Amino acid sequence: MRSGPAPEDLVSDHTVYSCVMGSRAFGLATEDSDTDLRGVFLAPTALFWRFEKPPTHVDGPLPEQFSWELERFCELALRANPNVLECLHSPLVEHVDDTGRELLALRDAFLSREVLRTFVGYAEGQAKKLAADRRVQRPPRGKPVMHLLRLLLSCRDLLRTGELVLDVGDARESLLAVRRGEVPWERAEPWMARLVEEATTAAERSPLPPGPDRARVEDFLVRTRRASARQPDPYDEVPQRLAH
């Protein structure tokens, strides 16, 4: 048995879903925007039988590329992690196989009113850091402020409609004005506070369930692992036949 695969091989050989995220997925791209790649790979089940387990995530191999192993991805999505949930709803899908299509079909199983806690919690934590920068005479940069506002808009609308839509639509020009520094912190901060209040109100009558459908996701994961276990270990050496 040879050593396990390099992390980048798991991404290149076993990705089940990949997409473009960041400004390009949000409808906020400008000429200098990066192309942020996100993906999910399925590590062969046989690799988990070794002492050295597959990585839960891989950074790269391409610039601005990040991938999660399927189980870790599902765990984070069940916790309503904003980055992971939004990854499942990108309008810019780069690659998807049968397992990836089944994962995408589970998108509603991950969504719940827990997004109020996680989306708002993340935004408020980042806003405090920006406010601290301002107190030491460093005005908050426009780009992170724009993305916090975008996240709160997304959260509010998700709680209102039950659907997670990444493209900012009509809010594009207002948000880009924030990015360009045309909206001072004194105006952006109350905007954020108002969005938090609106999201909190929306959660009270949201069509989303109180929590995610963990059993449905776990069934998918178990079936996927079992199917993989029936396949030969692609990283196991095949002994050469002896010459006679």
In words, what does this structure look like?
By secondary structure, this protein is of the alpha+beta class. It has 2 domains: 7-110 and 212-229, 2-Layer Sandwich (Beta Polymerase, domain 2), CATH 3.30.460; 115-204. Helices cover 51% and strands 10% of the residues. The chain is built from 11 helices and 5 strands, in the order αβαβββααβααααααα. Strands 3-4-2-1-5 form a 5-stranded mixed β-sheet. It is globular, with a radius of gyration of 21 Å. The two termini are 24 Å apart. The relative contact order is 0.16.
Number of strands: 5
CATH class of the largest domain: Alpha Beta
What is the overall shape?
Answer: globular
| H/I helix tally | 11
CATH topology of the largest domain: Beta Polymerase, domain 2
CATH architecture of the largest domain: 2-Layer Sandwich
Question: What's the average pLDDT?
Answer: 91
How do the helices and strands follow one another from N- to C-terminus?
Answer: HEHEEEHHEHHHHHHH
Tell me the β content: 5-15%
Major β-sheet profile: 5 strands, mixed
How many structurally independent domains? 2
Sequence of strands across the biggest β-sheet: 3-4-2-1-5
Which structural class do the helices and strands define? Answer: alpha+beta
Radius of gyration: 21 Å
